[in-house]
Amino acid sequence: MNRFHDLGGQHGYGSIEWEPDEPVFHERWEGRVFGMSLATSSSEGINLDATRHRAEQLDPVSYFQNGYFGRWLASLELKLEEEGLLADGELDQRLQGKIKSSAKESKPPPAPEGNPLRGLHVIREVDEPPAFAQGQAIRTRNHQPAGHTRLPAYARCRSGIIARVHPAMVFPDTNAHGKGENPQYVYTVEFAGEELWGDSAEPGTFVRLDLWESYLAAA
Amino acid sequence: MTATHEHGTPEIELRVEALESLLTEKGLVSPAAVDAVINYFEQDVGPLNGAKAVARAWLDPDYKARLIEDASSAFNELGITVRDNVIAVENTAEEHNVVVCTLCSCYPWSVLGLPPTWYKAPAYRSRVVREPRKVLAEMGLELPKSTAIRVWDSSAEIRYMVVPEQPQGTESMTENELEALVTRDSMIGVAQAAQPNAK
Question: Which CATH number fits domain A123-218: 2.30.30.50, 3.40.190.10, 3.30.70.360, 3.40.50.2300?
Fold first, then answer.
């Protein structure tokens, strides 16, 4: 998805604002949103591909103004709507006082067993061997889907070297949209700074990305 | 210095309260489950996990080799459960590693906790891939031109942590003393480990 979330290499975002002794959550709502997001995920864990794609659909002002946990909130609301758990406009009506809190005491579900981080189970067995080998030269494809992808715009149509071959993993471009896991090998690919940034590159700098097989072609 | 503009509007606090009350009434979430997630990220995970492994790696070259080869098992040896696919990369005088996620804010939660605000903010995400030397210098880390910089842009479900170089003159320190030198920033790769006299 060609959108503002794809920030790598963009200009004009200013200087790094480093904060001493930062708390994990700055505001109470940040923890509540994050907690709700993980607590409402299924027993298989959270579909991070779909979660990320929902955040990518935010309007740009909210995306930047409400920060990381604002993106989790937007993603959670959209998920609940998609799953029919929250009706369109239901939250806004509650905020305007149009739906009162239900008087009867409802019974909350028990806290889920085990660790809130259930693990990111994305590694899959596939029958075919990897198409590329460590040390091989590749070129990234001009891959620009309207939906979710993990190939950043700055690394399209660029030449790199396979630094490491990983197991096959669930493919975000389809998994984010409920179109299947379509597991593919993932490769760490190294790109020279000059290849990515041209004559503005800093000498002696490299970027490594973890890229799915269908993003790549033999050089 | 603070990044308050990244922490939302007053309306958002009310919105989240309303959402939690709706979800609780619908039986979709319990406040206790939300509390459990918050407690986990405030108390159970954080940079101390990563620091323990780095301090052990400084003291024990065999452990360091295992940490680089298979981080999950190496953390298990210390009684720390890694729930992400973590890879540890080692900084040397010749090669410096630094971690980012340009597309969102991927971060090794199990070993470093939740990321700091600057890591999730557009300035860092946009710039560190293009001009890592300048960004690191701005954050107080001037690297010699002879040191190559590798920026790991976390684009898949693989999470990276950096094993910083052990500061000189700390060879006789204990594991606990060394742990205190391993800062969060040094494991992201935007700083060296702290100097003992600076603590």
Answer: 2.30.30.50
